Amino acid sequence: MSVLVTGGTGKTGRRLAARLADLGQAVRIAARHPPAGPQGRRLDWSDRDSWDSALEGVSGLYLVPSSVAAEITAMIEFMGLALDRGVRRFVLLSASLLPAGGPGAGLAHQWLRDNAAEWAVLRPSWFMQNFSEGPHRETIRAEDRIYTAAGDGKVAFISADDIAGAACAALTAPRAINTDVILTGPEAISYDTAAAMIGQAIGRAIIHVRLSVDDLAARHRDRGLPPATAQILAGMDTLIAGGAEDRVTTGVETLTGEPPTPFDRFCRQNAQAWRRA
Length: 277
Description:
Blueprint: E1 2-6, H1 11-22, E2 26-31, E3 40-42, H2 51-55, E4 60-63, H3 69-84, E5 89-93, H4 105-115, E6 118-124, H5 129-132, H6 136-143, E7 145-148, E8 154-155, H7 160-172, E9 179-183, E10 189-190, H8 191-202, E11 207-210, H9 213-222, H10 227-241, H11 251-256, H12 263-269
Parallel strand pairs: 1-2, 1-4, 2-3, 4-5, 5-6, 6-9, 7-11
Antiparallel strand pairs: 8-10
Helix pairs in contact: 1-7, 3-4, 8-12, 9-10
């Protein structure tokens, strides 16, 4: 199988590409600015001239959706083109709280369910890497703070490595699973607990600062996010506060045969990310 990994330089994409290569699969890494070399394929949802060349010789497709509504529509058109070009196996990265037919990636989920013969939709909870590679990293390093509007809400944070493992399994399984799978870590914890575990790993006290949704949205805007995106992202913390992510599933182990990464192990493995220079 030759697999096109969209978002191939991102958190899950680059990990998936490495796993597929280790299995001897031919990997194509798609991005707006792909890596140099034969693996790189330029792909821009807004530039249809990039679509055909990205799909050349591809039989499997890993899809990382955009948060922009117009780009979701374009991605669905791209999936239709991929089907016409002979792509057999589709794996979509969605989110735990997005059902088929819901907004954003939920629309792509519904399209796959209605049109593809071989597909899977992965619906992970919040990434552990949000702490080590994403928005919380700098505030932990610079301020010993994590800012959320999640209150006491719990999340079964999942490692991007486990998501990549699940995606690899779904792409390479002899038979397509043809369903969606909610992926979580092994334990649901609060941000207070996450802060304490990170602090224990690095030898500093880390504090979870509880903000209102509006104050958190303002922080997102200050980081350069568009106002609407900032408000939506902050509002998702209210779902956590209400218990929407307080669940643990067996999805990772079902797909990969291995248990998901515990948060304390993730903290020990990534302690260097929070060290001060």
